[in-house]
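Justification of computing resources. Each target in the renewal requires a structure prediction run like the one illustrated here; the chain below, 219 residues long, is used simply to show the kind of job we budget for.
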Amino acid sequence: MFAFSTPLLAALCLCSAALAIYGSLGGQIWLVYLFKPLTTLLIIAHAWPRGRGQAPRRWVLLGLLCSLAGDVALLWPREGFIFGLLAFLLAHLSYLWAFTRVERFFTAWPWSFVFYALLAGGILARLWPGVPAELRPPVVAYVLCLAAMGAQAAVLGRRRGAGVLALGGLLFVVSDALLATDRFAGPLPLASLWVLVTYWAAQWCIASWLAPREPRPRR
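Resulting structure tokens:
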């Protein structure tokens, strides 16, 4: 489906992300509307030819598609917040299911879950006073799924060559924590820059975990 090389996709993704961030920081909303979804589409293009024949592939792609839906929803931060939250919740569940196709949930390295449980507790404690009562249940559910995804990514990251996945899981947690802090605990300086850089880096790392496409044999 996609024939772009990885270096070209990486360059296109970097340019698209830079334009989206520039638009967000500079109030050029049309740049955000155009290049924010495009950046995630380019990451999907990076993931598409990878992992052929691997059980996790379809779930990683589903997670990326759910993330794209969340990106579009959050172009309208107020009206689309709940839909965006649900879309990213489904993305984390898809990633978690993909990761458990390789290692059983929790049992392989419980210490990663201890770390992420403490991290999730700290995030919730920081956010809790500013979260409206009607949003507290979905926010708790979201943080729990996010932490479980990050922990399972760390489990797989202990495998040879899979450190990129552990990094991706951690960056996703950092990105969402920054986004939630900016929304519920007070504005952060240059929030769009830090949130989007860590978010797209996380997605690229997760996509890159899938095995690269094997080169076609020369005739």
